[in-house]
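Run: sequence + P-hydroxybenzoic acid -> complex structure.
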Amino acid sequence: MSRSDRSRLSQATLAFRSKALVATLASVGGFALATSSAVFAQTPAGKVKVGLMLPSSGTYAGLGTAITNGFKQYVDEQGGKLGGLQVEYAIVDDESNPAKAVENARKLIKRDEVDVLVGTVHSGVAMAMAKVARDNKTLMIVPNAGADEITGAQCAKNVFRTSFSMWQPAYAMGKVMADKGFKKVVTLTWNYAAGKQSIDGFKESFTKKGGVVIKDMSLPFPNVEFQPFLTEIAALKPDAVFVFFAGGGAAKFLKDYEAAGLKKSIPLYGSGFLTDGVLQAAGESATGVMTTLHYADGLNNKEDKDFRSNYQKRFNMVPDVYAVQGYDAAQLYEAGLKAAAGKLDQQDKIIAGMQAAKFDSPRGPMAFSKANNPIQNVYLREVKGSLNQVSSIATPNLEDPARGCSL
Ligand code: PHB
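>> structure
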């Protein structure tokens, strides 16, 4: 029996029990009747259970927190409800550990009976989660992980993403760097799906415009022993360096790059994860670094201004891309719930509502491809002080090619 079936059954049981309770209470006088009406006032209307599977430990802990903050902010702005249903949470720390992903996702689906699975940051964990979601026909929203397969070769009707594919910001940066006249580039990343696909996206557009990657380098996730790579970059003397790093590891990389004396001589570029949510930790070492991403500081649209001022009030900090992705995950789910008039057992209608959703995100206009990945602007940004200040739209309305997806 599905959770929706069970919830219909338990609502019927509750109604029956409530009637019995009225009969009993009515027979024992006025005080008891007053109590019984209080019982009815508290009878829950519909509820929806959201499973948040995100990291709250390890190098991506800060990213998981920002996503949670953004999601809860949107829900709270709607009075604690989505599509008229009171939101409850079941929460798991996935530790960015792919080996525990299947078990954690199953716990949320089987034990906690969540209506939607929201997660996660790390691509390896998200791909394992998505398989569990596909096998169980559970609705899933990915609020960060960029593995191209999630909305590519392994796409599914019930799996949506409110973040990006690895290809999107990296592809935009390949063009930017080629247009800046760089000819020879070295790449460096963590050796896992997100890192490799970020480098692939960059190379696709950079080489199409005549650029050459003279060396690809990588180290295992989440290692931060960057020194040997920095020594090699100094020896190779490329025109520029393109990297994928994120979270705590990104802050360490920025500092090490500067400390190695490379910042003055070899310009550093990356997908925006390199500098998002890490500027406080990276300090001066990040100043001037240019990145591409689907969010930036200084966008100045109404939704972003409201979102930022509420976030600042609630959490006493400036939001980053991860917070926006969490916020939009709640916003997207709400579009689905509204389309199904809050009926959780009508998954087809929920999915159709999400597929058709178009809204003004703090990041700008947002719509979804057939593969359920955002179609969105990718911005060129530059670190100025504590901000990733927008400098232009690198590519407007960029849609991932969704290679291998036949939805
Ligand atoms: C990923 O593993 O897909 C990933 C992790 C952190 C980011 C971006 C992508 O900032």
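>> summary
Confidence is low (pLDDT under 50) at residues 4-44. The pocket of P-hydroxybenzoic acid is lined by residues 60, 121-123, 144-147, 194, 246, 273 (CB under 6 Å).
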